[in-house]
């Protein structure tokens, strides 16, 4: 009989977090940059140059930031696993008691917990301690390259949307159209992210729209002040 394989939404958390962060940052940062430049009275070529520069710089920054931060997590995980291997080799009885205590704390009676700990140790000692003591699993383990590529790709996709608006909107409508269009893109992103994560869409949509609109409003205000004073 073939084992039943269930797909859980939490299995998406590794790439979903990076994807939502990248797309959200791409929309907000690029739209804010374009709005700030547009509010200062700049012409379309200046808007497009600013938008493209923001897209390239942002995508590279996201990739580098995600890779460095997730690599730090991976280094910590590997350090903990190396320490656990050493402790299993030098103090197997202490590690067995520690694992037994973990199962007891989860509601298993002492005799059963000891038997389970012995069987799991014999089957896969380091894997068992990684999962049940250190909480390192296949789902949560750090993947720096996946996080970096996902963030860079989704940042680029997100940044392309306000950049397209900057290319096609009439200049007199640039500020209003860029702001409204980018807020719509953020709302769609919040809904898609909620759907992928199995959550209700209202709170994620409100969350991304609020912070995105705030960032764009502040940048546009600064751009208008600078454009007026120069």
Based on CA atoms alone, the radius of gyration comes out at: 25 Å
Low-confidence stretches: none
Helix content: over 70%
Shape: elongated
How many discrete domains? 1
Assembly type of the shown chains? single chain
Which percent band covers the strand fraction? Answer: under 5%
Mean pLDDT: 85
E-strand count: 0
Q: Which structural category do the helix and sheet elements fall into? A: mainly alpha
Distance separating the two termini: 76 Å
- Specify the biggest β-sheet: none
Helix/strand order: HHHHHHH
Provide a count of the helices: 7
Describe the structure.
31% of the residues are buried. The chain starts with 12 loop residues before the first helix and ends with a helix. Helix content is 82%, strand content 0%. The protein has one domain. The chain is elongated. The protein has helices at residues 13-39, 44-90, 92-105, 110-132, 144-168, 174-197, 202-229.
What is the compact description of this entry?
By secondary structure, the chain is an all-alpha fold. It has helices at about 15-40, 45-90, 90-105, 110-130, 145-170, 175-195, 200-230.
């Amino acid at each position: 009989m073939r084992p039943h394989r269930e797909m859980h939404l939490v299995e998406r958390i590794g790439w979903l977090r990076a994807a939502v962060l990248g797309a959200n940052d791409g929309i907000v940062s690029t739209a804010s940059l374009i709005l700030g430049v547009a509010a200062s009275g700049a012409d379309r070529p200046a808007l497009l140059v600013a938008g493209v520069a923001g897209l390239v710089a942002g995508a590279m920054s996201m990739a580098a930031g995600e890779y460095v931060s997730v690599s730090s997590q991976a280094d910590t995980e590997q350090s903990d696993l190396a320490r656990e291997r050493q402790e299993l080799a030098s103090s197997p009885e202490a590690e067995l008691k520690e694992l037994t205590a973990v199962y007891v704390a989860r509601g298993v009676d002492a005799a059963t917990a000891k038997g389970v700990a012995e069987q799991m140790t014999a089957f896969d000692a380091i894997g068992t301690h990684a999962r049940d003591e250190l909480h390192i699993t296949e789902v949560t383990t750090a993947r720096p390259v996946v996080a970096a590529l996902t963030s860079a790709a989704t940042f680029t996709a997100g940044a392309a949307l306000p950049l397209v608006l900057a290319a096609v909107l009439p200049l007199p409508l640039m500020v209003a159209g860029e702001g409204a269009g980018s807020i719509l893109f953020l709302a769609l992103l919040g809904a898609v992210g909620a759907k992928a994560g199995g959550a209700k869409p209202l709170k994620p949509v409100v969350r991304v729209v609020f912070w995105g609109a705030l960032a764009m409003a502040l940048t546009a205000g600064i751009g208008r002040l600078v454009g007026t004073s120069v």
